[in-house]
Amino acid sequence: MIDIFLTQANYTLFINIGILFFILLVIISQNSTPFDYEWRKRTISDLAIQGYKNAWIMRLAFITFGTLLNIGVFIKMHQTKNTDFGEVLILIHGFSMLFSGIFSTAPVGNMTPYKNFTDKFHSVLAYVAGIALTGSSLFYFFTTSNPAKIIHISFFILTLMITTLFSLSKRDVLKMDHGIIQRLLYLNGLLWIFINYNILTP
Fold first, then answer.
1. Non-local CB neighbours of 142 within 8 Å, separated by 6+ positions
2. 159 sits in which H/E element
3. The whole model's pTM is what?
4. pLDDT at 8
């Protein structure tokens, strides 16, 4: 029965629902905060901080997206009987997003008790998720032909540019709202995943 499901299921459906559900829950979560949350200046992870009663919304977004993305990728791998390094990296990205919803970041200002390990591990997962997705696009740049090659390298360059802006804004080197920049980073990644599995993948 599982084999029938894996053979007949539409893998893009799982991936697309995961993307849409994530975006929807981000919007709902940032408009449901009881504390002073300025989305232009605060990160998406701050919506899932430890000790926050509505954190379950953003945690659900991370867990659902990671789960549906990986289900979709597993189905594709089963149907095509092919596994490449790029998709292994996407799976790592999916698992990192999933566990980001389980291990939450610390409250801003450390005003309430929190688990330091959970906070640190969330940061590690965030880095792994970003590196895995960027690495996947670089892998496909070297292993595909145009026009896919152009799309993959464009995503890679955009990711590096936005990440640099985010880092500089967090350090106050640039006077820019890092909440906005981080959301551009997320949208860039989600858009690449959508294009990769809906347009570039046969």
1. none
2. helix 148-170
3. 0.91
4. 63
